[in-house]
Amino acid sequence: MRKFLTAEWRDLIMANYEVPPELLASRVPEGTELDLHEGRCFVSLVGFMFLDTRVLEFLVPFHVNFEEVNLRFYVVREAEGEIRRGVVFVKEIVPRAAIAMIARRLYGEPYERWRMSHFRDALHVRYSWEKGECRNTISVESGANLGVPGEGSHEEFIIEHYWGYTKRRGGRTDEYKVEHPKWELFAAERPHIDVDFSCTYGPEFAFLGEEKPYSVVLAKGSEIAVYKGKSLNL
Question: pTM for the whole thing?
């Protein structure tokens, strides 16, 4: 498989919410099913940095380092004798128009361009994104190094997904592979989540604004590669 995109994903904040599976049923791509952990269904609000971004090995001017915030959920598929655990995106937000356009056209991913900013020092990590009246912020303080999450743990479930799936028109499903090493975690202390879920992600997600996250995870991140996708033969 050919690498479509390479980059570093760094300083990942993941706020994870338990939701009823029926909330996501209509969004599950054909050929996959919801991936549950200990019977629980999760969506994750994820903010992170793209660094040293290259498309087909080329740097795109003014699109090398930038923020992304996405809302995602988890699916699983059995193929070629293996279990493929993947993610599906409700919406992906970036500050760069070209990245959003390429992702929509080539992958059909739900990318949008918003005004975004971030802050990082030795203790704090913060992402903010806004469009019109929608203004959102997520932040944590970085605590002790927790190492790589244990096998079978909730944290491993959240961060160890190496496939992406996209629901396309006509019942089509696209699949692509994501490659990265296991990530070290840090204690996500004093999380602050000020997000208008209804305005940003739709009224069906409004209730998340009143919910306490099941967990908040802070991952160091790493170099990553996203491989060229393909449509599933269903």
Answer: 0.94
**3-class SS at 1?**
coil
Helix (H, G, I), strand (E, B) or coil at 8: strand
Q: Nearest-CA neighbor of 46 among 18, 76, 12?
A: 12
Q: Which two tokens stand for residue 72?
A: 């995602």
Environment class of 160 (CB within 10 Å of its CB; exposed 0-12, middle 13-18, buried 19+): middle
Do the strands 124-131 and 115-120 form a parallel or antiparallel pair, or are they unpaired?
antiparallel
Q: Are strands 230-231 and 111-113 parallel, antiparallel or unpaired?
A: unpaired
The DSSP secondary structure of 42-65, one letter per residue, reads: EEEEEEEEEEEEEETTEEPTT-SS
Which CATH number is 202's domain given?
A: 2.40.400.10
Partners of residue 129 on adjacent β-strands: 116, 136
pLDDT for the residue numbered 220: 96
Contact 107, 174 (CB under 8 A): yes
* Regions in the chain scoring below 70 on pLDDT: 56-62
Any idea what DSSP says for residue 37?
A: B
Report yes or no: 159 and 183 within 8 Å, Cβ to Cβ: yes
- The number of distinct structural domains making up the chain is 1
- What are the φ/ψ torsions at residue 83 (nearest 5 degrees)? -95, 120
Ordered DSSP codes for 196-210: -HHHHH-GGGGGGGG
SS (HEC) of 64-77: CCEEEEEEEEEEEE
The whole domain housing 114 covers 3-231
